[in-house]
Amino acid sequence: MEYMSMIIIFFFNNIHANKVHDWIRLETHKFAMGFPPLILRSIFLLSLLLSLVQSRSYTSSPNIKLPGDALALSVTDFGAIGDGIHYDSSAIQSAINACNLHYTTSSSICRVTFPPGTYLTAKLHLRSGVLLDVTENAVLLGGPRIEDYPAEISSEWYVVVANNATDVGITGGGAIDGQGSEFVVRFDEKKNVMVSWNQTGACLGDECRPRLVGFVDSTNVQIWNITLREPAYWCLHIVRCDNTSVRDVSILGDFNTPNNDGIDIEDSNNTVITRCHIDTGDDAICPKTYTGPLYNLTATDCWIRTKSSAIKLGSASWFDFKGLVFDNITISESHRGLAMQIRDGGNVSDITFSNINISTRYYDPSWWGRAEPIYITTCPRDSSSKEGSVSNLLFVNVTIDSENGVFLSGSPNGLLSDIKFRNMNLTLRRWSNYSAGLVDYRPGCQGLVNHSATAGIIMEHVKGFSVENVDLRWSDGDLNSAWNVPLEFRPSTVTNLSFVGFSSGLLHESV
Ligand SMILES: *[C@@H]1O[C@H](CO)[C@@H](O)[C@H](O)[C@H]1NC(C)=O
Ligand SMILES: *[C@@H]1O[C@H](CO)[C@@H](O)[C@H](O)[C@H]1NC(C)=O
Ligand SMILES: *[C@@H]1O[C@H](CO)[C@@H](O)[C@H](O)[C@H]1NC(C)=O
Ligand SMILES: *[C@@H]1O[C@H](CO)[C@@H](O)[C@H](O)[C@H]1NC(C)=O
Ligand SMILES: *[C@@H]1O[C@H](CO)[C@@H](O)[C@H](O)[C@H]1NC(C)=O
Ligand SMILES: *[C@@H]1O[C@H](CO)[C@@H](O)[C@H](O)[C@H]1NC(C)=O
Ligand SMILES: *[C@@H]1O[C@H](CO)[C@@H](O)[C@H](O)[C@H]1NC(C)=O
Ligand SMILES: *[C@@H]1O[C@H](CO)[C@@H](O)[C@H](O)[C@H]1NC(C)=O
Ligand SMILES: *[C@@H]1O[C@H](CO)[C@@H](O)[C@H](O)[C@H]1NC(C)=O
Ligand SMILES: *[C@@H]1O[C@H](CO)[C@@H](O)[C@H](O)[C@H]1NC(C)=O
Ligand SMILES: *[C@@H]1O[C@H](CO)[C@@H](O)[C@H](O)[C@H]1NC(C)=O
Ligand SMILES: *[C@@H]1O[C@H](CO)[C@@H](O)[C@H](O)[C@H]1NC(C)=O
């Protein structure tokens, strides 16, 4: 009880004392410890305008218009067989190289087309000015053998990768398949046990498998109308790129396979992801920073299911993240909804999450996450790590149906500041069979920590949290399972709170 503020204890008692009015309404004049509402409203409007300007300027980026005489080279003309048994690697690579030569001499983009068929291949190098056109009923099949990838450097293990390329992309309506099931040592509905190519010294640990598709140090990248499926490891990797568009892409990974992330965007600027369908085991859309900052990422109109986080910033977070917009996204039965695992000192600012429906559920402790719909943490990874801060986050029009509450956890030198929740409905109900009361700080930090109760919103090291028009309900059936604290925080680490139109109570109660 010491853990909660006096105010919360008061309302908490109120819930039990007065069953008829089993809800809380905190009015500004009673409760605002922060900015006056007028200022809040202006900030809100301003962020809204900014986010609209941002999403407009990126979602309307023009499609590639191929001139009528654009060159198209078929891989079959270069000797590809497409029977799924013989390797077509050198034929495909020759077609790509010829296309690239055409581009460098004429400056016009060239297509490498794959007629219907299954094209087994070792690693391919995509080059400037080349569009891989994997047509409907064509499949590019990644080789499952270690010798299909370069012996020396595991960071270059991809089925298809573009390095230092410009005007480059993949389309066509077909599929690129990583044969992920060939990498499973033991199928397990909790979590598959995977092979790791860690015997040769080129890669250490248990994550030594090839990624599916990568764009590295590239500009003007387009990936559209394609299915990327069964990756052995990360699926689509965008590294130090500028001006990338990913649209109408389906990513289908095994739900039980670890590390088969959907889209990992690293150290890249001006990335637009739209109309994507991602159904996979590990993090679905995952911005990271390793060698430089990440600016201007928008993801809109997507559907996501994952056994990890649907959207996650981090955990690699050495540099800043700024100007990200996530809009019109459905998150279905995922282990976590919107997450930030800031661990390495990078700062996060100006992020909008709008029009998002989230349903989360708990699967298994071997996966990070405990069904938190929103999870923001900045604890340093280990004693040598710096603390990054998070500021100016807006969550607006968010509907949540989840097995756990919201977790907002800064750190002493990595505060969460200026966090806004607007127009949100949260329904908390636990239907799977797991014990409440554990808080998940992984990776690093304090790990899994025992906690007495499960709260609607847990806060620590927060400076400036404003809530407007937010309704929190929990299932009547769960009364015995510690669902009884709407807000939990220590006043010593949480300041500048403002609650306007916040209500909390049982699900089936008429108010
Ligand atoms: C990148 O490509 C350009 C030509 O497009 C070349 O001049 C440059 O050397 C390449 N850089 C690297 C690091 O390969
Ligand atoms: C996607 O590819 C299919 C098959 O090639 C084609 O029929 C369709 O028009 C393409 N759709 C878009 C949006 O490009
Ligand atoms: C190699 O990977 C396996 C998992 O496939 C793991 O059990 C083992 O510890 C790894 N070995 C090293 C040296 O990392
Ligand atoms: C971004 O890439 C698209 C497609 O490759 C291209 O049409 C557009 O001109 C690029 N924008 C900038 C600012 O370079
Ligand atoms: C992204 O923009 C930042 C800020 O301008 C810059 O420092 C960084 O080099 C850019 N990254 C890329 C990959 O263009
Ligand atoms: C991010 O987007 C803004 C607004 O469109 C633009 O002014 C800025 O240059 C972009 N930043 C980078 C690093 O490209
Ligand atoms: C939201 O995204 C879905 C696709 O997931 C799309 O069908 C719908 O039109 C989008 N809604 C708006 C308002 O853009
Ligand atoms: C969220 O759910 C509401 C009500 O079911 C629906 O109207 C809305 O379109 C959904 N939005 C998204 C992004 O799924
Ligand atoms: C994050 O912000 C702090 C405080 O402004 C600053 O000291 C630190 O260098 C920033 N981190 C990065 C990676 O720039
Ligand atoms: C929240 O629920 C109320 C009442 O059912 C509804 O009017 C409102 O549109 C909902 N808002 C969101 C963001 O789901
Ligand atoms: C939130 O939802 C309301 C009602 O559907 C809509 O008018 C408003 O534009 C939405 N806000 C944002 C930022 O999308
Ligand atoms: C529920 O949890 C208990 C205790 O951990 C376990 O013994 C039981 O098998 C579980 N039941 C289901 C259906 O998972």
Question: Could you walk me through the main structural features you see in this protein, from its secondary elements to its overall organization?
Answer:
With 511 residues, the chain is mainly β. The protein folds into three domains: 1-57, no CATH class; 69-234, 3 Solenoid (Pectate Lyase C-like), CATH 2.160.20; 283-511. The chain has helices at 6-17, 28-31, 37-59, 89-106; strands spanning 71-74, 83-87, 110-114, 117-121, 124-126, 130-134, 138-142, 158-163, 166-171, 175-177, 184-186, 193-194, 211-216, 219-229, 236-239, 242-252, 263-266, 269-274, 277-280, 285-288, 294-306, 309-315, 321-334, 336-342, 348-360, 374-377, 390-402, 406-409, 416-428, 438-440, 448-450, 454-460, 462-474, 483-489, 494-506. The longest helix is centred in the N-terminal third of the chain and has 23 residues, at 37-59. The protein is elongated, with a radius of gyration of 24 Å. Residues 1-68 have low confidence and may be disordered. Bound molecules: 2-acetamido-2-deoxy-beta-D-glucopyranose (12 copies).
Instruction: Give the overall shape.
Output: elongated
Structural class by helix and strand composition: mainly beta
Total number of distinct structural domains: 3
Q: Helix coverage percent of residues?
A: 10-25%
Bound molecules: 2-acetamido-2-deoxy-beta-D-glucopyranose
In whole angstroms, the N-to-C terminal distance is 28 Å
Main pleated-sheet profile: 19 strands, parallel
* Relative strand content: over 45%
Give start-end ranges of low-pLDDT stretches: 1-68
Secondary structure tally, helices: 4
Total strand segments: 35
Radius of gyration of CA atoms, rounded to a whole number: 24 Å
The mean pLDDT is 87
